[in-house]
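Long-time lurker, finally posting.

We've been working with Polyamine export protein (Salmonella thompson) and I want a structural starting point before designing mutants. I don't trust myself to interpret raw outputs, so I'm hoping someone here can both generate the structure tokens and explain anything notable. Sequence follows.
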Amino acid sequence: MLNSIFIIFCLIAVSAFFSISEISLAASRKIKLKLLADEGSINAQRVLKMQENPGMFFTVVQIGLNAVAILGGIVGDAAFSPAFSALFSHYMSPELSEQLSFILSFSLVTGLFILFADLTPKRIGMIAPEAVALRIINPMRFCLFVFRPLVWLFNGMANNIFRLFKIPMVRKDDITSDDIYAVVEAGALAGVLRKQEHELIENVFELESRTVPSSMTSRESIIWFDLHEDEQSLKKKVAEHPHSKFLVCNEDIDHIIGYVDSKDLLNRVLANQSMALNSGVQIRNTLIVPDTLTLSEALESFKTAGEDFAVIMNEYALVVGIITLNDVMTT
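Top reply, 14 upvotes:
Generated this for you. Predicted structure of Polyamine export protein:
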């Protein structure tokens, strides 16, 4: 009986090894493993290679788990049934005693395997999957070598079933913006990212999804100069609306000439020169962008043109608003 009990505990240990190996490899994050591999970890490289083709790994795990479970049932019945039967034979008939002994020995062995060979190792594997995977990878490679013929047979049959039902055999690990959002959100909840950092990262991704009208100054709110406007009117607009740049148009806002910089106007005032736009004031060319542009594309346009101010037009060549580099960056 003692020998049988020892064998059962050995089988539980083997089953626990396969269980923790299975969950740790499945739960290991590729990003973390790649960082470890870049630092020179050979085992991390082996785990990554195993993840690329997990079929053979899971095949050897299932072979091990099922073989151990069958052996555990056989040995467990032989180990505990006689002891239970001898105990119950004093209180009931031999037939009933034998049946009850089988049920109790089955329940005991099953409970031991569930607790120590399944639940406990899998929870450990979930807590620190990468650390566990690095430790079990070499023993698992040895198991793959030992059971290679069986692994090849069962894995081949499984692959044929996958092909028959047109099920993909390789997991897609493409990282989407939703995945990054989830990681950022998790980092914020865990306290790794501060609130400001969290908002900044989210805003970066919003640059790809939001168009320029969402951050522009609308047409109705634009303060613009007419090319033939008198100096007093210009001074009044500058005093009441101290912007850094003003759009210059000819008669109406849809006929754009360019824009003037407030610093140029200030320099002319300090030099006792006229602010009238037809008196030599430098009118700069205006960057024009369509209203379908995303904020990310607008940022690239600013970078390419070397400007920080743009006019937004729709498909009818009508001005819908203006946007500055500061508008994009503070979105």
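Before you design anything, note these points.
Residues 144 and 318 are 69 Å apart (CA to CA).
The radius of gyration is 37 Å.
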